[in-house]
Each structure stands twice: as structure tokens, then as C-alpha cells.
Amino acid sequence: MVLIADSACQLNQETLKKLGIRVVDYPMYLNGKDYPVSMDMSREDKEKLRLMLKEKENVFSTSGLKEEDLLAAYREFTGEKIISIHQASSASTVTMNTIKNVASEHPDLDITYVDAGFLTAAYSVIVQDVALAIQSGASLQEVLGLIDLMKTSCRHLGVVYDLFYLHRTGRIGLAKAVLGTAMKILALLSSAEEVGTLKSIGKAKNSTQVNQRFLGIIKKDLEEKRGRRIHAVISVIGPHEKEAEDLKRQVEALDVETRVEIHYTNHSNMAHIGPDFYDIGYIVYA
Amino acid sequence: MPEVTLGPETLIRCLFGAQEYLERNYDILNNLNVFPVPDGDTGTNMLSTFEAGIRVLKSGDYGSLGDIAGIMNAELTRHSRGNSGFILARFFHGFFEVAGKHSSLDHHQLADGFTAGLFQVKSSLFSPVEGTMITIIRAMEDSFKEGDDGDLTVSLETALAAAREALKETPRLLPVLAKAGVVDSGALGFIFLMEGFSRVLKGLSMEREQEEDYRFPPETSGSAVVPEVKNFGYCTEVTILRPRLVPREEVTAYLETRGDSIALVREDDFLKVHIHTDIPGEIIEYMKTLGAVEHVKIDNLKEQISRFSGEGMSGDDCAVLAFIPGEGFREIFQSLGVNHCILYTSHLPSAGEILDALEEMPEKNFILLPNNKNILPAAMTAAKKTDKHVAVLHTVDVVQGLATSYGYSANDGIDDNVTSMKECMNLARGIFVYRSNAAAEFDGRVIGSGDYFSLINGSLAAVGDSLSEVVLSSVELSDIDGCENLSLYYGDLCRPEDCSRLTEDLKKRKEDLEVELLAGGQTRELLILALE
Lengths: 286, 532
Fold this sequence. Notes:
With 286 residues, chain A is of the alpha/beta class. Chain A folds into 2 domains: 2-152, Rossmann fold, CATH 3.40.50; 154-285, Hypothetical Protein Tm841, Chain: A,domain 3 (2-Layer Sandwich). In chain A, 41% of the residues lie in helices and 27% in strands. Chain A has helices spanning 13-19, 43-54, 67-75, 93-105, 120-135, 140-152, 164-168, 174-182, 207-224, 241-252, 270-273; strands at 2-6, 21-24, 28-30, 33-35, 60-62, 81-86, 110-115, 154-160, 186-191, 198-204, 229-237, 257-264, 277-285. In chain A, the strands form 3 sheets. In chain A, strands 10-9-8-13-11-12 form a 6-stranded mixed sheet, with helices on both faces. In chain A, strands 2-1-6-7 form a 4-stranded parallel sheet, sandwiched between helices. A 3-stranded antiparallel sheet of chain A has the order 4-3-5. Chain A starts with a strand and ends with a strand. Chain B is an alpha/beta fold. In chain B, the strands form 4 sheets. A 6-stranded mixed sheet of chain B has the order 13-12-9-16-14-15, with helices on both faces. In chain B, β2 (260-266) and β3 form a beta hairpin. The interface between A and B is large, with 44 and 50 residues.
């Protein structure tokens, strides 16, 4: 059984390789033209992309996974059971439809499509735990059962430093974005009750406050779910590794078993969330 | 061979192509949707409406344009969804009324179809608005009327080019689009349909378009004046069968006073109404008096907007009212999502004044931030007297009020917000700097006339004849471990240039803090400092 994911997954190359996860890249466009991206991009190239993104006149966008890219990835595993797990379908209906089409048009390929129901860091931690389950010899049914469980115990929290991108994606008005950014207000987001969407959960002035709020929510989740173990992925865009490290330390200091990893973001998030961001996706296990 | 006429088989293929192109791109329309309501459903509504006809066409064998017209007419009209779906259905109603009378369509009949479609759209809408689908349909109609290219493929391509030009005009015609930096989503949806239609004739495959091609820098200069629009709560659609004979004017007069985005379709055997209103129940009751209700659809627009924007109002409509000591704080609170601010100066608001303010505001649930311990009792009295659901958080100064606001989210109801906002109450600490008008003794210390002094937690912290020394001493006296930001809000009695110098000095001395200077506009304190 093999696992195929997409580049919304924030795990770094080394982790992906170790876990045997094959990733298909979302295409990216700069001002309407193809912009070359791949999961193999160096940190320098990601930084170059990030700086270009900071220029507000540059408009980056993505589109659904390309059929030929998906098919090429699936073909590498002809004859094997393929779990094709992707970020919430609400973020890319086209991708979901493309995969379903490929699966129906190529019955020789044994593809099981899974909608992870979460985005970025939360999608990543689900992918990571699914890969570990496969490596430990779980059957397809067991893996699918585990995914259902994870989806009910997963939460995604994030902080956006530059509100302009929330405006560009239609989440807040321009006036509020300009004002908020001028006041150096940070926007906090959380996965919402509706699968695959994010909602605003308030604001903060600095990362200490952000992490304090995040930790409060994590503690509440542990309490409500009587959690004894927490697996988390923190992804970072921009110069926020210190803040991410601080959050990691605080989560690891909780009185439960923890596994927390920080990954510098892959490219595909930047078009939507902007050049300054960090988020945490975590699963609470009882 | 030039395509001179459209027979039934080709027309069906073109309609399937139109549906496919829209399906590939409908989410772009959802993302661009700001008019008439930014609820992110234009693409979904247009696709759902158009698909209703296509589904039936795919399930049978229809050999004449009359058959196709009958299906498309009936299905689109009955299954139209939302404002955009309604307009689309009316266009095709008019178009197919013409098309259904012929065995095939040539250039002139296509033009006549667009004329009839446009007429149907305009006559079913109470207030047709330019800059929408109407503008696109007219542009295509004009193009068809301008001349016959002798090849329908070319005619359609020319009309489509005219439509895309007209699309660029939509932000000029509708300022709300210019402000948002988008073209009209319904207009683009119509173009997507025609693009798919045209691609079948040209033998081209269907493609995914780029959303960014339809965005541009938003108009921020203020030259784009957006008219005040009342935001009604519910998109309501009611279809009744066998309507009794009531003059259209009577129905029109009734609906016009109860909402907007009104459209009305009357056929021999049914009457369908679309309206954005706050009183869907009353509309349905009224429609019952006109005939047998066949179908009702009510969408909560505020919820849709909330879902789409990620920060709209929640179902239980929880607003925050903050009391501010200076006009400068209004913008700052607003940037945190606080909906209402009441300015107080030396006159503190009474319970009666707060009560009046609450009654005047449209929301039903409020969280009050008094931000002054002397306003707190009046706020609590007003909260008890009003019929509205009001929670008072005991914020004793504006710094605490700002920190408390960090926990507010318009997505949540009052109870969740109270919990979350309470958790944020102590995220910042204030230092309040004054100048004494007369010699006085306070906390056992003497303050000379004209001296500067500061209060922390209501206790005297520093006294001196230099503003900068008092501020620096006050910061030293505060526990700044773990603090990252120091915000200085200067009042009306403070000269901005003095504050700028002080800010620069603080930046040098406290390198670990990010120091910023903002205009608070308060009249009592020279400076209010927030440490967080």
C-alpha cells in the first residue's frame, strides 16, 4: 500500500522520503503565468518566492492538480493499493473531481481517494500519521478507520501576520486589512465546524499572546477529549521559526505524550495565506 | 465549412459544453461574488440552475429545437436558484421561446433569441442593474445585431469578445465591484457559459481559467462611491401553482416595501418570486393567498456571508460596544472587529444614555466594554434594564478593553465570545501619564503643580518635572519580562513631536520591545502606554 499526497502537505523532503510519501505538486502561477515550483525547491528558492509574494502587485495563484501529474504518480504504483489523500476538497473541488475521473477512467489502478478534510499543517499531521500506520502494516480498512478517527480529533490553528492576503482571498474587507496591518494586529484562525474551512477566532498583538491563546485551546481540547497523546505539525512561512519553536516547547511541556515537528512551508500555501504565517495542526488521541 | 445554422444535435452539444465550462470554473464565480450580496454562491447557483436543464437533456432523446426549448424552459425556471440563477433562467426562457419556433437557428434567430432573453430578464426584475449579467447579454445582442459574419462560429466569437470587453466595464458601472477589485461574478458566469458553447463549435477543449485574471487592484481613492445598501437577512424564493389572477402591480407594490433583489416570473400555471428580505415568513403567507405553494427556499444570507468571509456575523448576532476616551481609539477598536464605540470625555455616560444607545443599535446580543471603572456601574444597570441580551465585561481601562477585544470573533455567539474575551483581559497592562494642574498629595507622595505623574493599577508610580523621565521610570517600574510590545497612545494635550522623540528614546533604551506611537486623542491622560 502506498500513500500519495499533494503539495499542500507541509512535511519536509526528508520526512516525506522516510515515510515513503509521494507528493504531487499544485501548479502555481505568477501574474497568470506558470511559475516553476516543486517539493524539491531549496529553502533559498522558497525565500525568493516569499519575497516576490511580499510585492503586493505580484499575484500568485494555484489551480487544481493536473490530471497528467496525478496519472504519472499513480502509474509509478500500478499493481499496488494507492491511498490518494488530499487537503480538504472544499479548497480544491477540481482536484477531487480530477482524481475521481482518473480513478474511474483507469480501472487498472487501485486508487482510494481520501479527503483529509483539513488544510496545511493539519492536513500534514494527518498525512504523517497515515504514513506511519501504513509503515506499521495496517490494512486499508484500518487506515481508513484511523483517518475517520483523526478527522474528529484534529484541529488547525494559525496566525496571519499580513492581513492583505486575507483580504485578497475575500476573507476580510480591504479597510480592515489595511487598518489591522497598520496596527500590527495578527489574525488568529482555527478550523471551523464546517469541514475544510477556517474561521477567525480573534486577534493578537504579538507571538507570546498568539501562543498563549493556542495553548489554551490545545489544553481545552486535551481536557474535552481526555487526550493522553498529541501529535502535531507546525508549519512556518517567513521569519517565524522562533515563535514556532516557542509553541513547540510549550506543547511539549504539557503533561501528555507529545510528538511535535516544525517544517518550513512548501510553496503552495503561500499564494493563499501570504508570506508571513505559522500554523499548527494537531491530533489529540485518547 | 462554416457553421451557418445550429440544428438540434449541435445545439445540445453546445449546451453540454456550456455546462462543462461552467462546472470547471464555477468556484471562481463564488470567490468573486460581491454583488448584490457577498455570499459566495453565484457560481453554485448558476451551475445548479443550468444543470437542471442539462440533466434532463442528457436523460432523453430530443430531436427538435422545440423539444429542447420546452425542457430548458421548464427546468431552468422551476429550478432556478438565487439571484443569478433567476436571471439566467429568465434569459433562457426568452431565448428558447424564439429558438423553439424554428427547426434550426441562424445568425438572425440567434440575435432575436438574445433580444427576447434580455427582454425577459429586464421585465422580471424590479430594478435591473447595469454592470451585471444584463450588460453582458446586451453587449452580445448588440454584436449579433451589428452584422452577419456568415459563420455562426465567428459571430459567436465576435459577440463573446464584445462580452469580455463589457465585462471590464462592470466595475465602473457598479462601484461595489471597483471597491472589491473584481468583475461582476454573474456577468462572468454568463461568459463562461457562452465560452463553453463557443468552444464546442470551434472544436476546442474545455479549460480551467485563472481567478486572478478577473481581479484588479481595488479602488481605494474614495472616487468609487458605494451606495448604502440595506443588508436583508434571507434570500427567499416561493413558487406557487395555479396563481389566481392578481394584477402584477399589486404583487409588485407588496414586495417592493419588504426587500430588494426582487424578481417575479408569471407563467400560465405558476408564479415564482425571488426576494432578499428580513421577513420570509410574511412573504410566504402572502404568496399563499395567491395560490397553492409548490416550493419554498429560504437561505440565511448572513450565515452565507459569514461562511464565505470567515468573519461575518454569527447566527446569534453578537456585537461589541466599547467606550473610548479619545476618537483615535475608534479605529483601533474597529481593527479588532469591535462594531460600536461611544466616545466619553469628562462627561461619563449615564445608564439611561447607554440604554438608549443599545436600543438604537440593530443587534440583539451585546458585549459591553466599559473601559473605565466609573462607567462600569452605569453599563451594568443598562444591561439589566434592556430587553437585549447584554454581557458586561469588567474592563477598567482602555488598555484592558483593547486586550479583551483580541478574544472577539464575529463568528461566535455571545457565550463563546465572553469566555474567549475574558481569557484575553490580562494580555496587556496600562501605564497612565498625567500632568498635575495643582500641587497635591497622592499615595503619600507630593505632586507639584505642573509635575508629570503616572499611575499603574491605580497607584502612583512615578513623579517628576520631565515627561520623558516619568515615562522611562514608569516603564522601568513595570514588569516587562515576557513583554514584546509597548504602544504609546498620545492624547490631545500632548505634542506629537515630543511623543516622537520619546518613542525614539524608548526604542533605543528598550531594544527588546517593539515600540509604536499612535494617536489616542484622549483628553485626560497625556499618554496611555500599553505593555503586552
